[in-house]
Each structure stands twice: as C-alpha cells, then as structure tokens.
C-alpha cells in the first residue's frame, strides 16, 4: 500500500492534490451516509482520506472496521488517526495490529485531549505515553508504517510560546513522522509563518509536507464547531462576513451563510495553492457537497485515477 507522501507526489501532476477527513459514524444511518460520501469523493480521486479517532476509543471497534473497509473496498488511501488518550502502550500496540491486519499502513499519531473537556488537565494513562512523539517512535518501531502528526499554525493551546511549539513539532518529525496536518485556520498568514518557523528551526524536517486543514462553513452552527476545532475564535473579518450573510431576520439566512462560507473556503484554498501548499485537507463532517463545491470553484473535476 502507498504512503501519503508518495500519493501526494503521484497526484501532484494534476495540480495541488486534495484529501478529506471523515469521522466515525455514530449509528447505522450515519454509516450509510458516510458510505455515500465516500463514493462521491472516490470519483474525485483524493490523495488520501483520513478517519478521526473518538476520544479515549469510544467508537474504537466501529472505527477500525470502517477504516479497514476503506482500505479493502475502495480505491482510496486511508489514514487512521490514533490517539494516546486512555490507552496503555499495550493497547495502542494491539490497536495498531488491528489496523495492520485490515491493510492500513498510514496513521496520524496524536496525543488526544482529555475526554469531555479538551482544555482540562491532561493525565497520561499510567502505562501510556506522555507526548505524541513517544507514540511516533513506538509505531515506527513496529515496522512498516507511514506516520503523520499534527501541527498548529497558531501554536498548540498548551504550548507556552511558538518557539516551544515548533521545537516539539520538529522533534515529532525527527522521530519518524513523514508529514504533518495542521489544525484548521482561517488566516493563511498563520500557516505561512508556521512553515517558515519549521524551516528556520530545522531545514531537513521543514522540507516535509505541512498539509493545511480547512473546513467550509455552512451555517452559524458550524462556526461554533469550527471554533472548537481551531481552538480559537474565528477572525473578526470572517465572522463579520458570515453574520452579515445571516441577516437580521428571526431566522438565519442559511443559503446566504452557506454561500459566504463556501466563498471564504475557496479564497483560503486558492491562496494556499498560490503559496505552494502540498495538499488541501478538508474536514467534511461526513458530507461531500460543500467540499465538492469548493473544489469545483478551484477547477477540480472528477478525473481518471492516477496510475
Ligand atoms: P503532542 O505533540 O504530544 O503535543 C501536546 C503538547 O505538548 C503541545 O503543547 C506540545 O508543544 C507539547 N510537547 C510535546 N512534546 C513535548 C515534550 N517532549 N516536552 C514538553 N512539551 C512537549 N483528537 C482526537 O481525539 N482524535 C482525532 O482524531 C484527532 N485528530 C486531529 C487531527 C489534526 C490534523 C489535528 C491538528 C488535531 C487532531 N486531534 C484529534 C486533536 C489533538 O489530539 C489535540 O490537539 C491534542 O491536544 C494535541 O495532540 P498532539 O498530537 O499535537 O500532541
């Protein structure tokens, strides 16, 4: 099975590649919807698709089964997110074994956040790991896995400053990660400064792909979700555009908010393409339509599979 970096290179000939993130569905109806979304994206040939991991393994069995099915029953390259929260090293090894058994060789290694309150105090599992970097080493030692990690354009919320944050990102890359995927952002300058910081700190690790993550806003409710995922309030200029579109009536003008959200995501994506981003990674919340519209605006078409 291919690796993310190899797939990015293979897809680059047709323009800047894109990739999408899915979440483990909660029930049978959610699973059916996910599969419809998967089939729609399959026609557009993303460089890879990633599946998040519920905090503390709350949906572990379903997540492993569905991610395995992505590997076995589609033409897509799946990346399994793996978090250290609530797991001993033995459990993490066993989980990695389950992924390997179903044909998954690409994993995004994360520490995770305390379940219930992402900003709450972090306690490692007594037999677990303290930082994602340790888990990167464990997974690399297990054999033939391709590993990615998280990066934070505005710094991780627990990092005292950007220098500390960059140092630990470089350490995760040095430990064997081949690329990073960023936390979502709405100001491209933050992404560009992150890229500059990593290159300045470690030119070798800084040459590895930093894949920007973005999400089209489709309603004022998604604004709150986006702020949770960014870990910060949206920039005032973005919020202003969305609230202006929502109007002053008793109900938000959903069509106008959606149109503004798609326009904002298209502008961010275009700037990232112009700045040489290696890929555009979209949070989809398991829906295809908004991301497809952004891709269409950017000139992507469903195209023949990359050889
Ligand atoms: P780490 O790299 O361990 O860093 C955590 C903090 O410790 C940082 O402040 C870092 O600077 C600091 N640090 C690291 N190493 C050291 C050291 N040696 N000494 C001192 N300080 C150190 N969460 C989920 O639950 N499931 C998911 O599927 C998921 N997917 C995500 C995907 C992406 C692209 C991103 C950006 C985040 C995702 N998250 C997910 C959230 C993520 O788990 C949290 O943001 C978490 O708080 C940080 O994880 P990390 O892997 O960056 O941690």
From TrEMBL:
<dbReference type="Pfam" id="PF02219">
    <property type="entry name" value="MTHFR"/>
</dbReference>
<keyword id="KW-0274">FAD</keyword>
<comment type="similarity">
    <text>Belongs to the methylenetetrahydrofolate reductase family.</text>
</comment>
<dbReference type="InterPro" id="IPR029041">
    <property type="entry name" value="FAD-linked_oxidoreductase-like"/>
</dbReference>
<keyword id="KW-0285">Flavoprotein</keyword>
<protein>
    <recommendedName>
        <fullName>Methylenetetrahydrofolate reductase</fullName>
    </recommendedName>
</protein>
<dbReference type="InterPro" id="IPR003171">
    <property type="entry name" value="Mehydrof_redctse-like"/>
</dbReference>
<keyword id="KW-0560">Oxidoreductase</keyword>
<comment type="pathway">
    <text>One-carbon metabolism; tetrahydrofolate interconversion.</text>
</comment>
């Amino acid at each position: 099975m291919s690796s993310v970096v190899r797939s990015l290179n293979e897809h680059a000939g047709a323009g800047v590649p894109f990739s999408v993130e899915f979440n483990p569905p909660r029930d049978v109806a959610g699973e059916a919807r996910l599969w419809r979304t998967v089939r729609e994206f399959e026609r557009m040939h993303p460089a890879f698709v990633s599946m998040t991991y519920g905090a503390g393994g709350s949906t572990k069995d379903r997540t492993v089964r569905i991610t395995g099915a992505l590997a076995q029953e589609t033409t897509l390259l799946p990346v399994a997110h793996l978090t250290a929260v609530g797991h001993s090293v033995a459990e993490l090894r066993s989980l990695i074994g389950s992924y390997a058994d179903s044909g998954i060789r690409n994993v995004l290694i994360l520490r995770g956040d305390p379940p219930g309150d992402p900003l709450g105090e972090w306690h490692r599992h007594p037999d677990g790991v303290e930082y994602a970097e340790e888990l990167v080493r464990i997974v690399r030692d297990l054999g033939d896995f391709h590993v990615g990690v998280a990066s934070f354009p505005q710094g991780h919320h627990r990092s005292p400053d950007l220098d500390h944050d960059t140092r630990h990102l470089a350490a995760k890359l040095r430990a064997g990660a081949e690329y990073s995927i960023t936390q979502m952002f709405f100001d491209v300058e933050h992404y560009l400064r992150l890229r500059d910081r990593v290159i300045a700190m470690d030119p070798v690790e800084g040459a590895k792909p930093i894949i920007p993550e973005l999400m089209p806003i489709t309603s004022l409710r998604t604004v709150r979700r986006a702020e949770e995922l960014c870990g910060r309030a949206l920039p005032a200029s973005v919020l202003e555009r969305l609230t202006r579109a929502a109007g002053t009536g008793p109900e938000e003008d959903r069509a106008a908010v959606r149109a503004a959200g798609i326009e904002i995501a298209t502008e961010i994506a275009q700037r990232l393409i112009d700045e040489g981003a290696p890929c555009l990674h979209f949070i989809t919340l398991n829906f295809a339509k908004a991301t497809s519209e952004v891709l269409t605006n950017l000139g992507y078409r469903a195209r023949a599979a990359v050889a």
